[in-house]
Amino acid sequence: MSGKPVQGRMTADGTGEVVVFLVGMRINDWRAVRSWLPVLRAMTPMIKELARDPERGMLGYRFLPGLRNVAVLQYWESKEKLLAYASDQGGAHRPAWAAFNRRARAGRGHVGIWHETYAVPAGSYENIYANMPPYGLGAARGVVPVARRGERAAERLAA
User: Can you give the pTM of this predicted structure?
Assistant: First the structure.
């Protein structure tokens, strides 16, 4: 995590729906580089494409590296925009998905992929960041002083 800490108690700006999308891969066989390396390399162009075009709906992201598992945490404006990106014939996702499926059939399970999508309605999430650089949803939406949305978690959830 980098960046200068924002002093005080902050919360993410915005109160509407947010979609949390986790996507990742698992290397099942380290020796099968031809199976897992292209999957790993496909993640970055998609993130760059989304970051260049905010109208697509991705609010922010964070890479979650690991030894065998690599994931990306993403925040989206809506499930409709996430699904539109996933099915966009002209975007980076469709060719990467098709290539993975071809590799999966030939690769005998050397690499796995997964994703989880959570559509979180307005009023069903809250957060606090104390003396932290912008992080998570706060990095994606910006932060405001806690008092603007309620001093207590229960108040922020009810807003």
Answer: 0.90
